[in-house]
Amino acid sequence: MGLEGRTALVTGAARGIGRATARVLAEAGARVAVADRDVAVEETAESLRSQGHEVAAVTFDVASPDGARAGVSRVREVLGDVDVLVSNAGIVDHIAPLVRMQRERWATELDVNLGGAFHLLQAVLPVMVERRWGRIVVISSVAAPGGLYRQAGYAASKAGLLGLAKTVTLEHARDGITCNAVLPGLIETETVAAMPEEIRSAAIAGTPARRLGRMEEVAKLIAFLASDGAGYINGAEIRIDGGFSLNTAALGSRREVRGSSQ
Fold first, then answer.
1. Which pTM value belongs to this model?
2. CATH assignment at residue 100
3. Which of 172, 215, 216, 244 could cross-link 185 (Cys pair, CB 3.0–4.6 Å)?
């Protein structure tokens, strides 16, 4: 999975899967730009620099078209053209029944989770087309094909990423560009650690692997998709969930799922 000579941009890299992915890509030889709207992304960069990797930290909000363009321009100035884009930045902003979901918070989730990927793609694709090589990985979720109880905004935005990734493949596979979606299940991130123990335990019980996934496992899958060896994998939806998607149980309790949505 050698990525020597490549420049990778990883968004949402202040923590979690983004931070783990930045480390694995750097270890594979890539120059890595770590991006986030949280200034704590500089801690990710410093950690990697201390290990001898060539890294740049960029702070911007992917939900802003101008911010995304400026961020990619900054990466280009410091590390060179973006060869690998990992669109990982995402939020879970609103947990509520659909009928009670606030329009503004619904819009925020779509702006970040789906709009952010769109803005980044518009910023990096022209150069990838010109160079006739590019690797794009969008981080979706097992919630995309299956929905998620009381999280319509998150599920809808992650589902939108699947259509976006496939469209990039249809338009740009002929240009030497791949675009694939990774669909993690419950992974041991900081966000999952903060979930109620009841929900985590139910998820583990419903997962054939009987454990949560590790961030490094997701990161290594992303690194493979970014490599030359994955050049004929395109427009794919790849689940990494320990088999959880084979179980139809919802994360909400059975009583809640059967009960009223009011």
1. 0.92
2. 3.40.50.720
3. 244
